[in-house]
Amino acid sequence: MEQLIVLGTGNAAVTKYYNTCFALAREDRYFLVDTGGGNGILAALDKSGIPVHAIHDIFISHEHCDHLLGVVWMIRMIATAMKKGSYEGNCTIYCHRGLVSVIDTIAKLTIQGKFYRMVGERILLEGVEDREHRKILEYDVEFFDIHSTKAKQYGFTTVLDNGRKLTFLGDEPYNEANRTQVQGCAWLLHEAFCMDGEAAKFSPYEKHHSTVKDACELAERMRIPRLVLWHTEDSHYGERKKLYRAEGQKYYSGELYVPDDLERIEL
Ligand SMILES: [Zn+2]
Question: Distance from the CA of 190 to the center of ligand 1, in angstroms?
């Protein structure tokens, strides 16, 4: 059974959601993608029933604090479990090459020496290049540069056991350079900062983000059957799903998902 476990769905500045991050679950093993901005990752994992010892692969898309800082807590907790003997094997943290020293430095400066020592020993920071492949949960995962204008950022694409292609575009809009990775996908995980109707209020384009309408038009144009939207503002807490879906369905005829934190989606 393959599932997308949504851990957070907010943008950087939210207070009502956790920052956008998720896990791909294959039976009892998990691939954690981004970690949000802090210790909240531990609460999200706990509420989702994902034990730290079942996470052996983590991907960090880019350096921004709403994606990266939770990894300090993951390193801290995984190192603790390793030292207690309750974590088998290694943990690999994948990221683009430029991020390796950033994660290493932040970990070194903020985690006690006895835990930090696990980095390089059993917690491995693995830099990947554009379009490099890695075997993760036995999936063939291709990492790729999303061509961000703000900070170097990678996404990834893979094919699930059920034959469906799944593509994660990080927290910026689709770039034509990634047509190969997005074309033909059955699941597109895409950011949507706010609704089109509120673009004047939230200024998504200044921050190089999309509206619900933009992401839906893209998915319609590229004939993508399932679209997940997240990395949003939080002013419509409790009503976001209804409002965003109402806007999106005007432009998109596929299955539109606007998950709340902690939702599970069957892939
Ligand atoms: Zn972000």
Answer: 12
